[in-house]
Amino acid sequence: MRAPLRRPYFPPLRKGDAKAVLITSVIAAGLSAAMIYYASELHRLQARVNHGFGPEWDCLRPDKGDPICTRAKPHEPAPGTN
To answer: What is residue 50's predicted lDDT score, i.e. its pLDDT?
Structure first.
């Protein structure tokens, strides 16, 4: 026969414990928000990367698969300028 499992003992909360939990939660939420924001910024940055083709290529990076690169059209001067 097995001995019954004992529940772990948790001492009662002290005065500053709730404040410490609140501060830790705010810090964790701030770090999570920063990571989500910068992850989306990194994705936008990777979407503009040229993927090694050179400046005369326009590359698009879809969510799945390899980048799609096409040769960029030459920029035409504005009308009325030489």
So the answer is: 59
Listed in sequence order, the DSSP H helices in the chain are 17-48
Which helix (H) or strand (E) segment holds residue 68: the answer is strand 68-71
Nearest to 50 by CA among 60, 40, 42, 41: 60
Give tens-digit pLDDT for 48-57: 665 667 777 7
Which domain does 46 fall in, by range? 20-71
- Spatial contact of 31 and 39, defined as CB atoms under 8 Å apart: no
pLDDT number for residue 28 = 97
What total number of domains does the chain contain?
A: 1
Q: Identify the sign of the CA torsion 19, 20, 21, 27.
A: positive
- Assigned domain for 81 exists: no
The three-state secondary structure class of 70 is strand
Residue matched to tokens 């290529």: 57
